[in-house]
Amino acid sequence: MNSITRTTACSPLGGRLARLVAAAAGLAAATPLAAGAGTLPGFMNMVTDSAAIFTVPLTARPAYLVPVADPTFRVPVTRIAGNVGAALGGGVSGSWGSDARHHYSKDQPWNSDGTLLVLQNSGSPSQVYLDGETYAVKFGKCSGYSVGDDRWHPSKAHPDERINVNGSELMWYDVVRCVKTRSWTLPFAVDYFGPSEGNPSNDGRYAALTDGTRMFVVDMDPQPPLAPYPAQRIGPAVSIASCGLADCSVDWVSVSASGTYVVVSYNGDHPRVYDVDPGTLALTPQVYAAGTAECSSHDPASGFIFDLGHADLAVNPFDSNEDVLVGQKRSWCPSTVKGVAMGSVIMVRLRDGAVTTLTNPTNEAAAHHISTRNLDRPGWAYVGYHDEPGKKYSDEILAVKLDGSKSVQRFAHKHSAYSGCYRCESHSVPSRDGRRVLWASNWTEDCLVCGASTDIKAFVADARDTTAIPVSDVIAPAPDSNLRPR
Protein backbone atom coordinates (compact mmCIF):
# COMPACT_ATOMS: atom_id res chain seq x y z
CA MET A 1 0.00 0.00 0.00
CA ASN A 2 1.25 3.47 -0.85
CA SER A 3 1.02 6.31 1.66
CA ILE A 4 -0.14 9.80 0.85
CA THR A 5 -0.94 12.94 2.80
CA ARG A 6 -3.90 14.74 1.27
CA THR A 7 -4.34 18.51 1.45
CA THR A 8 -7.27 20.71 0.52
CA ALA A 9 -7.33 23.81 -1.62
CA CYS A 10 -7.48 25.91 1.56
CA SER A 11 -4.48 24.28 3.22
CA PRO A 12 -1.25 26.29 3.51
CA LEU A 13 1.34 25.31 0.93
CA GLY A 14 4.23 23.24 2.18
CA GLY A 15 7.63 24.78 2.87
CA ARG A 16 9.25 23.18 -0.17
CA LEU A 17 6.61 24.55 -2.53
CA ALA A 18 6.86 27.98 -0.90
CA ARG A 19 10.60 27.98 -1.53
CA LEU A 20 10.13 26.90 -5.14
CA VAL A 21 7.52 29.58 -5.72
CA ALA A 22 9.65 32.21 -3.99
CA ALA A 23 12.57 31.32 -6.24
CA ALA A 24 10.41 31.61 -9.34
CA ALA A 25 8.85 34.85 -8.13
CA GLY A 26 12.27 36.38 -7.64
CA LEU A 27 13.36 35.39 -11.13
CA ALA A 28 10.11 36.64 -12.62
CA ALA A 29 10.37 39.97 -10.83
CA ALA A 30 13.77 40.55 -12.40
CA THR A 31 12.38 40.01 -15.92
CA PRO A 32 10.51 42.83 -17.68
CA LEU A 33 6.89 41.89 -18.37
CA ALA A 34 6.10 41.56 -22.06
CA ALA A 35 3.61 43.93 -23.66
CA GLY A 36 -0.12 43.40 -23.34
CA ALA A 37 -0.30 41.96 -19.83
CA GLY A 38 -3.56 41.27 -18.07
CA THR A 39 -4.78 39.75 -14.84
CA LEU A 40 -7.47 37.12 -14.33
CA PRO A 41 -8.60 35.89 -10.89
CA GLY A 42 -6.21 33.33 -9.46
CA PHE A 43 -3.52 34.05 -12.06
CA MET A 44 -0.32 36.04 -11.95
CA ASN A 45 -0.09 39.03 -14.28
CA MET A 46 0.12 37.34 -17.69
CA VAL A 47 0.59 38.28 -21.33
CA THR A 48 -2.88 38.46 -22.88
CA ASP A 49 -2.10 40.38 -26.08
CA SER A 50 -3.51 38.16 -28.84
CA ALA A 51 -1.61 39.87 -31.68
CA ALA A 52 1.95 40.30 -30.36
CA ILE A 53 4.72 38.35 -32.09
CA PHE A 54 7.69 37.22 -29.99
CA THR A 55 11.03 35.76 -30.98
CA VAL A 56 11.75 32.65 -28.93
CA PRO A 57 14.68 33.58 -26.67
CA LEU A 58 17.68 31.32 -26.15
CA THR A 59 16.99 29.71 -22.77
CA ALA A 60 18.93 27.13 -20.76
CA ARG A 61 17.08 23.96 -19.84
CA PRO A 62 15.91 24.21 -16.22
CA ALA A 63 17.60 21.96 -13.70
CA TYR A 64 15.45 19.38 -11.94
CA LEU A 65 12.94 20.98 -9.53
CA VAL A 66 14.49 24.45 -9.86
CA PRO A 67 11.95 26.95 -11.24
CA VAL A 68 13.04 29.60 -13.72
CA ALA A 69 10.93 32.30 -15.31
CA ASP A 70 10.12 32.04 -19.01
CA PRO A 71 12.02 35.10 -20.32
CA THR A 72 9.12 36.28 -22.47
CA PHE A 73 6.05 35.50 -20.40
CA ARG A 74 7.57 35.51 -16.87
CA VAL A 75 5.63 32.37 -15.89
CA PRO A 76 7.78 30.12 -13.66
CA VAL A 77 8.82 26.88 -15.39
CA THR A 78 9.96 23.77 -13.51
CA ARG A 79 11.39 20.52 -14.83
CA ILE A 80 9.65 17.79 -12.82
CA ALA A 81 11.53 14.68 -14.07
CA GLY A 82 15.10 13.94 -13.04
CA ASN A 83 18.31 13.27 -14.93
CA VAL A 84 18.79 10.02 -16.84
CA GLY A 85 19.87 7.25 -14.48
CA ALA A 86 19.37 9.32 -11.33
CA ALA A 87 17.61 7.67 -8.41
CA LEU A 88 13.97 8.64 -8.01
CA GLY A 89 14.44 9.64 -4.40
CA GLY A 90 11.79 9.90 -1.72
CA GLY A 91 12.55 6.37 -0.55
CA VAL A 92 11.17 4.98 -3.83
CA SER A 93 13.26 2.31 -5.55
CA GLY A 94 14.06 2.98 -9.20
CA SER A 95 15.60 5.53 -11.53
CA TRP A 96 14.64 8.10 -14.13
CA GLY A 97 14.80 7.07 -17.78
CA SER A 98 15.55 9.16 -20.87
CA ASP A 99 11.79 9.40 -21.50
CA ALA A 100 9.99 10.63 -18.39
CA ARG A 101 6.86 12.56 -19.31
CA HIS A 102 3.08 12.48 -19.29
CA HIS A 103 0.98 10.40 -21.66
CA TYR A 104 -0.90 12.84 -23.93
CA SER A 105 -2.62 16.21 -24.21
CA LYS A 106 -6.04 14.64 -23.60
CA ASP A 107 -4.95 12.64 -20.54
CA GLN A 108 -5.08 14.70 -17.32
CA PRO A 109 -1.84 14.06 -15.37
CA TRP A 110 -3.14 15.50 -12.05
CA ASN A 111 -5.71 13.59 -10.02
CA SER A 112 -9.06 15.16 -9.18
CA ASP A 113 -7.94 16.92 -5.98
CA GLY A 114 -4.50 17.89 -7.26
CA THR A 115 -2.53 15.91 -4.68
CA LEU A 116 -0.95 13.49 -7.17
CA LEU A 117 0.55 13.69 -10.66
CA VAL A 118 1.50 10.67 -12.76
CA LEU A 119 4.32 10.38 -15.31
CA GLN A 120 5.32 7.61 -17.66
CA ASN A 121 8.95 6.60 -17.23
CA SER A 122 11.24 4.60 -19.54
CA GLY A 123 13.29 3.79 -16.45
CA SER A 124 11.89 1.80 -13.55
CA PRO A 125 9.09 1.80 -12.51
CA SER A 126 7.10 2.52 -15.67
CA GLN A 127 4.65 4.79 -13.80
CA VAL A 128 5.90 7.32 -11.27
CA TYR A 129 3.51 9.19 -8.99
CA LEU A 130 4.58 12.64 -7.83
CA ASP A 131 3.27 15.03 -5.21
CA GLY A 132 0.89 17.25 -7.16
CA GLU A 133 2.31 20.43 -5.61
CA THR A 134 6.04 19.92 -4.96
CA TYR A 135 6.59 17.26 -7.70
CA ALA A 136 8.61 15.13 -5.28
CA VAL A 137 8.39 11.40 -6.03
CA LYS A 138 5.76 9.68 -3.85
CA PHE A 139 5.57 6.10 -5.12
CA GLY A 140 5.68 3.86 -8.17
CA LYS A 141 3.17 1.55 -9.81
CA CYS A 142 1.48 -1.02 -7.58
CA SER A 143 2.96 -4.47 -8.23
CA GLY A 144 -0.49 -5.99 -8.78
CA TYR A 145 -1.72 -3.30 -11.13
CA SER A 146 -1.84 -4.46 -14.76
CA VAL A 147 -1.99 -1.22 -16.72
CA GLY A 148 -3.51 -1.24 -20.18
CA ASP A 149 -4.57 2.37 -20.81
CA ASP A 150 -5.72 4.35 -17.78
CA ARG A 151 -7.01 7.77 -16.72
CA TRP A 152 -7.56 9.45 -13.38
CA HIS A 153 -11.16 9.23 -12.24
CA PRO A 154 -12.42 12.81 -12.74
CA SER A 155 -14.70 12.87 -9.69
CA LYS A 156 -13.39 14.40 -6.47
CA ALA A 157 -15.12 11.52 -4.68
CA HIS A 158 -12.54 9.15 -6.22
CA PRO A 159 -9.20 11.03 -6.16
CA ASP A 160 -6.96 7.97 -5.86
CA GLU A 161 -8.63 5.80 -8.50
CA ARG A 162 -7.59 5.22 -12.09
CA ILE A 163 -10.06 4.07 -14.76
CA ASN A 164 -8.12 1.34 -16.56
CA VAL A 165 -8.95 -0.50 -19.78
CA ASN A 166 -7.04 -3.71 -20.40
CA GLY A 167 -8.31 -6.05 -23.12
CA SER A 168 -11.77 -7.28 -22.12
CA GLU A 169 -11.67 -5.80 -18.62
CA LEU A 170 -12.61 -2.31 -17.50
CA MET A 171 -11.71 -1.48 -13.90
CA TRP A 172 -11.33 1.23 -11.31
CA TYR A 173 -8.08 0.85 -9.41
CA ASP A 174 -6.96 2.69 -6.28
CA VAL A 175 -3.25 3.35 -6.85
CA VAL A 176 -2.67 4.54 -3.26
CA ARG A 177 -4.12 1.47 -1.53
CA CYS A 178 -3.26 -0.85 -4.44
CA VAL A 179 -6.82 -2.20 -4.61
CA LYS A 180 -9.17 -2.84 -7.53
CA THR A 181 -12.42 -1.14 -6.53
CA ARG A 182 -14.71 -1.91 -9.50
CA SER A 183 -14.56 -4.23 -12.51
CA TRP A 184 -16.54 -4.99 -15.66
CA THR A 185 -16.14 -7.84 -18.11
CA LEU A 186 -16.58 -6.30 -21.54
CA PRO A 187 -18.45 -8.00 -24.39
CA PHE A 188 -15.18 -8.19 -26.37
CA ALA A 189 -11.58 -7.05 -26.08
CA VAL A 190 -11.21 -3.36 -26.89
CA ASP A 191 -8.45 -1.19 -28.27
CA TYR A 192 -7.18 0.64 -25.19
CA PHE A 193 -9.22 3.62 -23.96
CA GLY A 194 -10.81 4.74 -27.15
CA PRO A 195 -7.96 3.97 -28.63
CA SER A 196 -5.58 5.81 -26.29
CA GLU A 197 -7.37 9.18 -26.78
CA GLY A 198 -10.68 8.53 -25.05
CA ASN A 199 -11.88 9.96 -21.75
CA PRO A 200 -14.76 9.27 -19.39
CA SER A 201 -17.54 11.83 -19.14
CA ASN A 202 -16.64 14.73 -16.85
CA ASP A 203 -18.51 13.14 -13.94
CA GLY A 204 -16.70 9.81 -14.40
CA ARG A 205 -19.93 7.93 -15.10
CA TYR A 206 -19.74 6.99 -18.80
CA ALA A 207 -17.05 5.57 -21.06
CA ALA A 208 -17.13 4.71 -24.79
CA LEU A 209 -14.94 1.82 -25.93
CA THR A 210 -14.14 0.22 -29.29
CA ASP A 211 -12.27 -2.62 -30.94
CA GLY A 212 -11.87 -0.56 -34.11
CA THR A 213 -14.98 -1.90 -35.82
CA ARG A 214 -17.63 -1.78 -33.06
CA MET A 215 -18.23 0.50 -30.10
CA PHE A 216 -20.43 0.65 -27.01
CA VAL A 217 -21.00 2.72 -23.89
CA VAL A 218 -20.53 1.60 -20.28
CA ASP A 219 -22.42 3.24 -17.42
CA MET A 220 -19.84 2.82 -14.68
CA ASP A 221 -21.88 4.48 -11.92
CA PRO A 222 -25.63 3.95 -12.46
CA GLN A 223 -27.79 6.42 -10.54
CA PRO A 224 -31.31 5.98 -9.08
CA PRO A 225 -33.76 4.72 -10.09
CA LEU A 226 -31.23 2.39 -11.77
CA ALA A 227 -29.63 -0.36 -9.70
CA PRO A 228 -26.21 0.81 -8.48
CA TYR A 229 -22.87 -0.85 -9.14
CA PRO A 230 -22.12 -3.79 -8.98
CA ALA A 231 -25.07 -4.01 -11.36
CA GLN A 232 -23.57 -4.08 -14.84
CA ARG A 233 -24.91 -1.61 -17.39
CA ILE A 234 -23.28 -1.94 -20.81
CA GLY A 235 -25.00 -0.69 -23.95
CA PRO A 236 -25.37 -2.60 -27.22
CA ALA A 237 -22.45 -2.51 -29.63
CA VAL A 238 -22.88 -0.62 -32.90
CA SER A 239 -20.79 -1.17 -36.03
CA ILE A 240 -18.59 1.77 -37.07
CA ALA A 241 -16.71 -0.11 -39.79
CA SER A 242 -18.83 1.37 -42.57
CA CYS A 243 -18.88 5.17 -42.65
CA GLY A 244 -19.19 6.30 -46.26
CA LEU A 245 -15.58 7.53 -46.40
CA ALA A 246 -12.74 6.09 -48.43
CA ASP A 247 -11.04 5.06 -45.18
CA CYS A 248 -13.18 3.99 -42.21
CA SER A 249 -10.34 2.98 -39.92
CA VAL A 250 -10.84 4.48 -36.48
CA ASP A 251 -8.40 6.98 -35.01
CA TRP A 252 -10.14 7.58 -31.67
CA VAL A 253 -13.46 7.27 -29.86
CA SER A 254 -14.72 9.12 -26.79
CA VAL A 255 -17.91 9.88 -24.94
CA SER A 256 -18.63 13.62 -24.77
CA ALA A 257 -18.02 15.67 -21.64
CA SER A 258 -21.68 15.44 -20.53
CA GLY A 259 -22.17 11.82 -21.65
CA THR A 260 -24.84 12.87 -24.18
CA TYR A 261 -22.85 11.97 -27.31
CA VAL A 262 -20.05 9.75 -28.54
CA VAL A 263 -17.57 11.03 -31.13
CA VAL A 264 -15.76 8.73 -33.55
CA SER A 265 -12.82 10.29 -35.37
CA TYR A 266 -11.92 8.34 -38.47
CA ASN A 267 -8.42 8.21 -39.88
CA GLY A 268 -7.53 11.61 -41.29
CA ASP A 269 -9.44 13.61 -38.66
CA HIS A 270 -13.04 13.12 -39.76
CA PRO A 271 -15.25 13.30 -36.63
CA ARG A 272 -18.70 11.72 -36.59
CA VAL A 273 -21.18 12.22 -33.77
CA TYR A 274 -23.52 9.60 -32.27
CA ASP A 275 -26.40 10.22 -29.86
CA VAL A 276 -26.48 8.16 -26.66
CA ASP A 277 -29.93 6.89 -25.63
CA PRO A 278 -29.98 7.55 -21.86
CA GLY A 279 -32.31 4.63 -21.22
CA THR A 280 -30.67 1.88 -23.27
CA LEU A 281 -27.21 3.36 -24.01
CA ALA A 282 -27.86 2.55 -27.68
CA LEU A 283 -25.89 4.64 -30.19
CA THR A 284 -27.30 6.21 -33.36
CA PRO A 285 -25.61 8.70 -35.71
CA GLN A 286 -26.61 12.30 -35.15
CA VAL A 287 -28.56 13.81 -38.08
CA TYR A 288 -27.41 17.31 -38.92
CA ALA A 289 -29.29 19.67 -41.20
CA ALA A 290 -28.32 20.13 -44.84
CA GLY A 291 -25.80 22.93 -45.13
CA THR A 292 -24.11 22.19 -41.79
CA ALA A 293 -20.47 23.24 -42.14
CA GLU A 294 -18.22 20.29 -42.97
CA CYS A 295 -15.16 19.35 -45.01
CA SER A 296 -14.43 17.15 -48.05
CA SER A 297 -18.11 16.49 -48.86
CA HIS A 298 -18.85 14.47 -45.72
CA ASP A 299 -22.53 13.84 -45.06
CA PRO A 300 -23.94 15.86 -42.13
CA ALA A 301 -27.05 13.67 -42.24
CA SER A 302 -24.80 10.76 -41.21
CA GLY A 303 -23.37 12.63 -38.24
CA PHE A 304 -20.25 14.22 -39.74
CA ILE A 305 -19.13 17.64 -38.54
CA PHE A 306 -16.31 20.03 -39.42
CA ASP A 307 -12.95 18.20 -39.52
CA LEU A 308 -10.71 18.97 -36.56
CA GLY A 309 -7.24 17.64 -35.74
CA HIS A 310 -5.91 16.73 -32.29
CA ALA A 311 -9.30 17.68 -30.86
CA ASP A 312 -10.64 17.42 -27.32
CA LEU A 313 -14.17 17.45 -25.87
CA ALA A 314 -15.60 19.96 -23.40
CA VAL A 315 -18.72 21.76 -22.25
CA ASN A 316 -19.00 25.45 -23.09
CA PRO A 317 -20.22 27.51 -20.10
CA PHE A 318 -20.72 30.52 -22.39
CA ASP A 319 -23.34 28.54 -24.33
CA SER A 320 -25.53 26.80 -21.71
CA ASN A 321 -22.90 24.08 -21.14
CA GLU A 322 -23.36 22.69 -24.64
CA ASP A 323 -21.07 19.80 -25.60
CA VAL A 324 -18.32 20.96 -27.95
CA LEU A 325 -15.30 19.61 -29.79
CA VAL A 326 -12.26 21.92 -29.96
CA GLY A 327 -9.41 21.22 -32.34
CA GLN A 328 -6.95 22.36 -34.94
CA LYS A 329 -8.13 23.56 -38.38
CA ARG A 330 -7.27 21.15 -41.17
CA SER A 331 -5.81 22.48 -44.42
CA TRP A 332 -8.55 20.99 -46.62
CA CYS A 333 -11.39 22.60 -44.70
CA PRO A 334 -13.05 25.88 -45.75
CA SER A 335 -11.07 28.98 -44.81
CA THR A 336 -14.31 30.81 -44.04
CA VAL A 337 -17.63 29.70 -42.53
CA LYS A 338 -20.62 31.99 -43.04
CA GLY A 339 -18.22 34.74 -44.07
CA VAL A 340 -16.00 34.43 -40.97
CA ALA A 341 -12.31 33.63 -41.48
CA MET A 342 -11.28 30.51 -39.60
CA GLY A 343 -8.26 30.64 -37.32
CA SER A 344 -6.08 27.70 -36.34
CA VAL A 345 -8.23 26.74 -33.32
CA ILE A 346 -11.91 25.95 -33.99
CA MET A 347 -14.86 24.83 -31.86
CA VAL A 348 -17.83 22.79 -33.09
CA ARG A 349 -21.07 22.46 -31.10
CA LEU A 350 -22.18 18.83 -31.13
CA ARG A 351 -25.90 19.52 -30.94
CA ASP A 352 -26.10 21.20 -34.35
CA GLY A 353 -22.59 21.28 -35.83
CA ALA A 354 -22.26 25.07 -35.45
CA VAL A 355 -18.68 26.27 -36.03
CA THR A 356 -16.88 29.02 -34.09
CA THR A 357 -13.32 30.17 -34.68
CA LEU A 358 -11.48 30.78 -31.41
CA THR A 359 -8.41 32.52 -32.87
CA ASN A 360 -7.73 35.13 -35.54
CA PRO A 361 -5.89 33.65 -38.54
CA THR A 362 -3.87 36.81 -39.29
CA ASN A 363 -0.18 35.81 -39.17
CA GLU A 364 -1.03 32.87 -36.89
CA ALA A 365 1.25 29.86 -36.54
CA ALA A 366 -0.35 26.43 -36.88
CA ALA A 367 -1.92 24.92 -33.78
CA HIS A 368 -0.67 21.46 -32.85
CA HIS A 369 -2.36 19.75 -29.89
CA ILE A 370 -5.45 20.97 -28.01
CA SER A 371 -6.48 20.06 -24.46
CA THR A 372 -9.62 20.81 -22.46
CA ARG A 373 -8.67 18.78 -19.40
CA ASN A 374 -9.13 21.91 -17.25
CA LEU A 375 -12.39 20.54 -15.84
CA ASP A 376 -12.41 22.96 -12.89
CA ARG A 377 -11.95 25.93 -15.21
CA PRO A 378 -14.40 25.31 -18.07
CA GLY A 379 -14.56 27.81 -20.89
CA TRP A 380 -10.93 27.67 -22.05
CA ALA A 381 -8.92 25.39 -24.34
CA TYR A 382 -5.15 24.98 -24.03
CA VAL A 383 -3.10 24.89 -27.21
CA GLY A 384 0.47 24.08 -28.14
CA TYR A 385 1.65 25.67 -31.37
CA HIS A 386 4.15 24.59 -34.00
CA ASP A 387 7.43 26.49 -34.28
CA GLU A 388 6.97 29.02 -37.10
CA PRO A 389 9.30 31.98 -36.50
CA GLY A 390 7.84 35.35 -37.41
CA LYS A 391 4.26 34.31 -36.66
CA LYS A 392 2.23 34.91 -33.52
CA TYR A 393 2.10 32.00 -31.05
CA SER A 394 5.14 30.29 -32.62
CA ASP A 395 6.35 27.50 -30.27
CA GLU A 396 3.98 28.73 -27.57
CA ILE A 397 1.55 27.25 -25.10
CA LEU A 398 -1.55 29.38 -24.57
CA ALA A 399 -5.14 29.22 -23.39
CA VAL A 400 -7.94 30.48 -25.66
CA LYS A 401 -11.42 31.39 -24.46
CA LEU A 402 -14.44 29.47 -25.76
CA ASP A 403 -16.70 32.53 -25.95
CA GLY A 404 -15.46 33.51 -29.41
CA SER A 405 -13.79 36.69 -28.14
CA LYS A 406 -10.36 35.38 -29.20
CA SER A 407 -9.04 36.16 -25.72
CA VAL A 408 -5.80 34.38 -24.83
CA GLN A 409 -3.40 33.75 -21.97
CA ARG A 410 0.17 33.05 -23.04
CA PHE A 411 2.16 30.72 -20.75
CA ALA A 412 5.54 29.60 -22.11
CA HIS A 413 7.71 28.52 -25.04
CA LYS A 414 8.18 24.75 -25.50
CA HIS A 415 11.79 24.44 -26.81
CA SER A 416 11.31 20.91 -28.22
CA ALA A 417 12.51 19.54 -31.56
CA TYR A 418 10.04 16.81 -32.51
CA SER A 419 10.33 16.12 -36.23
CA GLY A 420 10.32 12.32 -36.54
CA CYS A 421 10.04 11.91 -32.76
CA TYR A 422 6.50 11.41 -31.46
CA ARG A 423 7.46 11.37 -27.80
CA CYS A 424 9.30 14.68 -28.30
CA GLU A 425 5.97 16.32 -29.19
CA SER A 426 4.94 18.53 -26.31
CA HIS A 427 1.28 17.48 -25.86
CA SER A 428 0.63 20.39 -23.49
CA VAL A 429 -2.12 19.75 -20.93
CA PRO A 430 -3.48 22.02 -18.18
CA SER A 431 -4.02 21.23 -14.54
CA ARG A 432 -7.63 20.86 -13.41
CA ASP A 433 -7.84 24.55 -12.47
CA GLY A 434 -6.06 25.66 -15.64
CA ARG A 435 -3.41 27.68 -13.81
CA ARG A 436 -0.57 25.27 -14.56
CA VAL A 437 0.37 23.62 -17.85
CA LEU A 438 2.49 20.49 -18.23
CA TRP A 439 4.32 19.64 -21.44
CA ALA A 440 7.13 17.42 -22.73
CA SER A 441 10.34 18.73 -24.26
CA ASN A 442 13.86 17.62 -25.12
CA TRP A 443 14.83 21.31 -24.86
CA THR A 444 16.97 21.29 -28.00
CA GLU A 445 15.39 24.30 -29.72
CA ASP A 446 16.32 27.93 -28.96
CA CYS A 447 18.49 26.93 -26.04
CA LEU A 448 21.68 28.27 -24.48
CA VAL A 449 22.38 25.05 -22.60
CA CYS A 450 20.42 22.28 -24.27
CA GLY A 451 19.16 18.83 -23.49
CA ALA A 452 20.02 15.79 -25.59
CA SER A 453 17.57 15.19 -28.44
CA THR A 454 16.62 11.81 -26.96
CA ASP A 455 16.27 13.07 -23.37
CA ILE A 456 12.56 13.87 -23.07
CA LYS A 457 11.33 15.32 -19.82
CA ALA A 458 8.17 16.84 -18.33
CA PHE A 459 7.97 20.57 -17.53
CA VAL A 460 5.34 22.64 -15.74
CA ALA A 461 4.54 26.33 -16.25
CA ASP A 462 2.90 27.65 -13.08
CA ALA A 463 0.83 30.84 -13.54
CA ARG A 464 -0.84 30.78 -10.13
CA ASP A 465 -1.06 34.04 -8.22
CA THR A 466 1.38 33.41 -5.39
CA THR A 467 1.46 36.89 -3.87
CA ALA A 468 0.07 35.55 -0.59
CA ILE A 469 2.88 33.02 -0.20
CA PRO A 470 5.66 34.34 2.10
CA VAL A 471 9.22 34.29 0.83
CA SER A 472 11.36 32.08 3.03
CA ASP A 473 14.52 30.91 1.35
CA VAL A 474 15.59 30.02 -2.18
CA ILE A 475 16.73 26.61 -3.35
CA ALA A 476 20.06 26.92 -5.12
CA PRO A 477 20.26 25.35 -8.60
CA ALA A 478 21.56 21.78 -8.52
CA PRO A 479 24.21 20.53 -10.96
CA ASP A 480 22.70 19.11 -14.14
CA SER A 481 25.11 16.64 -15.68
CA ASN A 482 22.78 15.82 -18.59
CA LEU A 483 22.96 19.28 -20.12
CA ARG A 484 25.19 20.06 -23.06
CA PRO A 485 26.14 23.37 -24.68
CA ARG A 486 24.61 24.00 -28.06
Please tell me about this protein's structure:
The structure is a single chain. The chain is mainly β and 486 residues long. The protein has a single domain (34-485), classed as YVTN repeat-like/Quinoprotein amine dehydrogenase (Methylamine Dehydrogenase, Chain H, 7 Propeller), CATH 2.130.10. It has one helix at residues 15-29; strands at 37-38, 46-47, 68-69, 76-79, 87-89, 92-95, 99-101, 116-121, 127-131, 137-140, 149-152, 161-166, 169-174, 179-185, 206-210, 214-219, 238-239, 250-255, 261-266, 270-276, 283-285, 308-316, 322-329, 336-337, 340-341, 345-349, 355-357, 367-371, 380-385, 396-401, 408-413, 429-430, 436-441, 449-450, 456-462, 484-485. Strands 3, 4, 7, 8, 9, 10, 32, 33 and 35 form a 9-stranded mixed β-sheet that branches. It has a 4-stranded antiparallel β-sheet with strand order 11-12-13-14, with no helix packed on it. Strands 18-19-20-21 form a 4-stranded antiparallel β-sheet, with no helix packed on it. Strand 18 (250-255) and strand 19 (261-266) form a beta hairpin. The termini are far apart.
Let me know the average pLDDT. 91
CATH class: Mainly Beta
Structure classification: mainly beta
Label the CATH architecture.
Answer: 7 Propeller
What is the domain tally? 1
Largest sheet: 9 strands, mixed
The CATH homologous superfamily is named YVTN repeat-like/Quinoprotein amine dehydrogenase
List the helices and strands and how they pair.
Layout: H1 15-29, E1 37-38, E2 46-47, E3 68-69, E4 76-79, E5 87-89, E6 92-95, E7 99-101, E8 116-121, E9 127-131, E10 137-140, E11 149-152, E12 161-166, E13 169-174, E14 179-185, E15 206-210, E16 214-219, E17 238-239, E18 250-255, E19 261-266, E20 270-276, E21 283-285, E22 308-316, E23 322-329, E24 336-337, E25 340-341, E26 345-349, E27 355-357, E28 367-371, E29 380-385, E30 396-401, E31 408-413, E32 429-430, E33 436-441, E34 449-450, E35 456-462, E36 484-485
Parallel strand pairs: 7-35
Antiparallel strand pairs: 1-2, 3-4, 4-35, 5-6, 7-8, 8-9, 9-10, 11-12, 12-13, 13-14, 15-16, 16-17, 18-19, 19-20, 20-21, 22-23, 23-26, 24-25, 26-27, 28-29, 29-30, 30-31, 32-33, 33-35, 34-36
